[in-house]
Design goal:
globular; 19 helices; mainly alpha; Growth Hormone, Chain: A
Length: 470
């Protein structure tokens, strides 16, 4: 067992437990990354489905996804087991998530098209709205349940982001290779057999790593004797916390939680634009999928590298300032992709994107925990489950809406998967649309978030003020 040998919620954590928590990010982000990057191209090229209809299915599904995050947040808040509130859900959901992911990448070829679209809608929502939510919300909630120390929360957020990035690097470096190895068709890597065998390998690994995370971490917050005594002496407050509407009102009155929720929505929309964009850019702009790993890993490796610097930066600069600067660097990197076409400059632009995502993403989880602390100081209501659920919903809505927008634009630009089977290039309008989605759209979004956070986000300062008043 790698868990730290104490139950003090304000105590320092050992590196074993820190790394064990981070490994959970590696597990789910492998699968999430595959879904984000390759699901649409699987549906269009392997399953032969229409990009516009698939985009609409993904967009409509976000309604269920948002609802499921709120439900999962309440479940986490109301869960009380020997393992705590959150870890038990990772234990329960990792295998269903693996199975549903396999089914998502297995659209039965013999079904009529209408039945295929119904199948996609049902399985996508089971996989994403039920199973992924059942892992994602508890995993993010664990930051605020493992430790109450602000620095440790920020460090855990940074570490899990490092592991998420490692998951991306691992997928970027191996997924296309495995698809190629297991494809029975020499003319395309996008075959059902290739996707089935490849996904089986990744899903099995995800389950193993998730279990490693579960059994090598410990939830300490609210488990000590003092916390138990406080809970027993504040029945009215607990009753108030159990009221869903009171919890929602507390979150909606938390200006920093609202702004950070918007920030996470934008960042994850940006992530899906470059994740899908890299696949489609390699396939339909460069017409060379061997370039995919180089372009994708330029982002991922830079993101990975900068996260070793951010813990040092946190000792000198606040999390929110690092996050805000990350948005600026992201905006510059994506603008570079919109301006330049030379491979060396595209790689440089992707390095800047990775640095920006690493700076912002590494701070996000710790900042979520801080917004929950700020809200509790203001209202007396603890919203750790619902607060993280709302952030998770924003992230997944960003991913899903980003996927949908990408699909709609490609369909409007005239993408026709049947041309691929005939060896005919896609229309020039498809390449133009991909370039725009890959560069300028994310640049504008990141620049807007930089301005908002620079002007209006001062959560850590206000927490200190509220603590001084109490």
């Amino acid at each position: 067992m790698l868990t730290t040998k104490h139950d003090d919620p304000n105590g320092k954590l050992g590196w074993g437990e820190r790394l064990a928590y981070g490994s959970g990010g590696f597990a789910f982000n492998m699968i999430n990354g595959i879904i984000g990057s390759f699901l649409t191209i699987y549906f269009t090229s392997a399953a032969g489905l229409n990009a516009g209809i698939i985009a609409t299915i993904l967009a409509v599904s976000k309604v269920f996804d948002g609802i499921s995050d709120l439900i999962m947040g309440r479940l986490v808040d109301n869960t009380n087991t020997k393992m705590g509130k959150a870890r038990v859900w990772l234990l329960r959901m990792c295998i269903p998530f693996a199975v549903s992911t396999m089914l998502l990448f297995y659209v039965p070829a013999g079904f009529p098209d209408m039945v295929k679209y119904v199948y996609v809608f049902l399985i996508y929502n089971i996989c994403n709205a039920v199973c992924l939510t059942g892992m994602l919300v508890p995993f993010y909630s664990m930051v605020g349940l493992i430790t109450a120390d602000s620095y440790e929360r920020g460090l855990l957020g940074n570490i899990q982001q490092i592991f998420q990035t490692l998951g991306n690097v691992f997928v970027n470096s191996t997924f296309v290779i495995l698809l190629t190895k297991f494809s029975e068709n020499p003319n395309t890597i996008y075959t059902q057999r290739a996707f089935t065998i490849t996904l089986a390998i990744y899903c099995a690994l995800m389950v193993v790593v998730s279990l490693f995370c579960v059994f090598n971490t410990k939830e300490r917050v609210k488990l000590g004797a003092a916390a138990q005594a406080e809970a027993e002496n504040t029945v009215k407050k607990e009753e108030k916390n159990e009221n869903v509407m009171e919890t929602v009102k507390a979150l909606l009155s938390n200006k920093y939680w609202l702004l950070l929720t918007l920030g996470n929505f934008v960042v994850f929309a940006i992530i899906i634009f470059y994740a899908m964009g890299t696949v489609f850019f390699s396939q339909y702009v460069l017409y060379d999928m061997s370039q995919y790993s180089m372009l994708a890993n330029a982002i991922a490796v830079a993101q990975f590298a900068i996260m070793f610097v951010t813990p040092v930066l946190m000792t000198k600069i606040s999390k929110e300032k690092i996050y805000t600067f990350g948005m600026l660097v992201m905006a510059i990197g994506f603008a570079g992709s919109g301006i330049f076409t030379a491979p060396s400059l595209l790689i440089l632009s992707n390095v800047l994107k990775g640095i920006g995502v690493g700076l912002a993403g590494g701070m996000a989880l710790g900042m979520v925990a801080d917004t929950v602390t700020y809200g509790k100081l203001k209202t007396g209501i603890d919203t750790v489950g619902m607060g993280n659920a709302g952030i998770s919903a924003a992230q997944k809505i960003g991913l899903g809406l980003g996927q949908a927008i990408f699909g709609w634009v490609l369909a409007a630009a005239g993408l026709d998967a049947a041309l691929d089977a005939q060896g005919i290039p896609q229309p020039e309008s498809v390449s133009t649309a991909i370039k725009f989605l890959y560069g300028w759209v994310p640049a504008i979004m990141a620049a807007a978030m930089f301005v908002l956070f620079l002007l209006f986000y001062h959560c850590e300062r206000d927490i200190k003020k509220l603590e001084a008043q109490q």
